[in-house]
TrEMBL record:
A Pfam family that the UniProt record links to this protein: TetR_N
DNA-binding found in the keyword field: yes
UniProt-listed SUPFAM superfamilies: Homeodomain-like, Tetracyclin repressor-like, C-terminal domain
Residue ranges of DNA binding: 31-50
Domain HTH tetR-type: 8-68
Superkingdom field: Bacteria
Keywords on record: DNA-binding, Transcription, Transcription regulation
InterPro entries linked: ArpA-like (IPR047923), DNA-bd_HTH_TetR-type_CS (IPR023772), Homeodomain-like_sf (IPR009057), HTH_TetR (IPR001647), Tet_transcr_reg_TetR-rel_C_sf (IPR036271)
Protein's UniProt name: ScbR family autoregulator-binding transcription factor
PROSITE patterns: HTH_TETR_1, HTH_TETR_2
Length: 216
């Protein structure tokens, strides 16, 4: 394996392992010593990529805003829905995403590094603004307000769901979308939106194309 490729791979292993520890243990209880034990790297090998726990936390948060699986749809509102469903599907499977929320709700870490919630609000606002310009939203809907409220609600759903023994984030987010979309989407658009909890898995499947309408 070429040296540069090996370095990229090692950096990724460190970052993902740190994310697992932040997610499982919290920011304070995560230590460089523990990370070295888990990755089996030397201290010098780790410090070549990351010089401190603080730098690792910032790197994890930098990975938080991700559009993987999102594809153009007939309705911009479907893209907004898809993003919520994709994150619900991916978060339990990807420690980097889960750790970004754990760091964001940790009072100490939040005070040091901030959060990526403003970035998520901006992404949602852009999609909802495009949907409004296409006539997909009810006239009273404000994209910025809706994006802020939805990020707050999505985060709350995630935090509650992970404490439930039978909680499934995709199912919960799908249900929340079904409750809220009638107050956001025009009836003709609403009828064509797909909010099913399995939609994200379809979008992420290697053979998945880009559905021309809301429904796959």
């Amino acid at each position: 394996m070429p040296r540069q490729e090996r370095a990229i791979q090692t950096r990724r292993i460190i970052l993902e392992t740190a994310a697992e520890m932040f997610d499982q243990l919290g920011y304070d209880a995560t230590t460089i010593g523990g990370l070295i034990d888990r990755t089996r790297l030397t201290r010098g090998g780790l410090y070549f990529h990351f010089t401190s726990k603080e730098e690792l936390a910032r790197a994890v948060l930098d990975e938080a805003v991700t559009m993987e699986g999102l594809a153009p749809q007939t309705f911009k509102l479907q893209e907004w829905v898809d993003l919520a469903l994709l994150l619900a599907h991916r978060l339990p499977r990807e420690p980097l995403l889960s750790a970004s929320i754990r760091l964001s709700v940790d009072v100490k870490a939040r005070g040091m590094f901030g959060t990526r919630w403003p970035d998520w609000i901006a992404v949602g606002q852009d999609l909802l603004t495009a949907a409004r310009e296409r006539g997909e939203l009810l006239v009273h809907v404000d994209p910025q307000e809706t994006a802020r409220m939805f990020v707050a609600a999505w985060t709350g759903i995630q935090l509650v769901t992970e404490t439930l023994p039978d909680g499934d984030l995709s199912t919960e987010v799908s249900g929340f979308l079904r409750l809220t979309l009638p107050n956001i989407a025009r009836p003709g658009v609403l009828a064509k939106l797909d909010t099913s909890p399995t939609r994200a898995a379809h979008l992420l499947a290697p053979e998945a194309g880009s559905p021309a309408t809301g429904r796959p």
